[in-house]
């Protein structure tokens, strides 16, 4: 499950990564393979996409303000909350924000 921008965000992140002060780019061919895999999984129903509706936008905006998250991160957190699914991420700030939001909603 992911917002519709998820595959786009994934490819963008793969194209330009930062580790500390170093930036590097993966070759386009490598990112294209990742995109092809994502597209296949979407087509096969292994990834379900959720469009950014007006209600999701409003709820994600509140999450962004409460948790001081960037817009895309707030949309991902909001989607996990809406679907009552665990948030699978390596992003510590997003994971903590999701945990705080779950507590906030109780």
Detailed description of the structure:
This protein is mostly helical and 106 residues long. Helix content is 63%, strand content 9%. The protein is globular. The mean pLDDT is 90.
Question: What is the element layout, followed by pairings?
Answer:
Layout: E1 2-3, H1 6-15, E2 17-19, E3 22-24, H2 28-43, E4 49-50, H3 54-67, H4 71-83, H5 92-105
Parallel strand pairs: 1-4
Antiparallel strand pairs: 2-3
Helix pairs in contact: 1-2, 3-4, 4-5
List how many beta strands DSSP finds.
Answer: 4
Termini separation:
23 Å
Overall shape? globular
The strands making up the biggest β-sheet line up spatially as 1-4
* Percent of residues in β-strands: 5-15%
The protein's oligomeric status is single chain
Described by strand count, sense and barrel closure, the largest sheet is: 2 strands, parallel
Order of helices and strands: EHEEHEHHH
Low-confidence stretches: none
Helix coverage percent: 55-70%
Average predicted confidence as pLDDT:
90
Structural class assignment: mainly alpha
Q: Total helix count?
A: 5
Alpha carbon gyration radius: 15 Å
């Amino acid at each position: 499950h992911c917002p519709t921008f998820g595959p786009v965000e994934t490819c963008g992140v793969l194209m330009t990564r930062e580790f500390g002060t170093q930036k590097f780019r993966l070759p386009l061919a490598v990112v294209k393979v990742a995109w092809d895999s994502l597209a296949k999984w979407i087509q096969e129903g292994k990834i379900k996409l959720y469009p950014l509706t007006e209600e999701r936008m409003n709820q994600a905006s509140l999450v962004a303000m409460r948790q001081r998250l960037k817009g895309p991160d707030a949309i991902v957190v909001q989607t996990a909350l809406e679907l009552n699914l665990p948030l699978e991420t390596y992003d510590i700030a997003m994971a903590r924000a999701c945990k705080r939001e779950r507590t906030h909603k109780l």
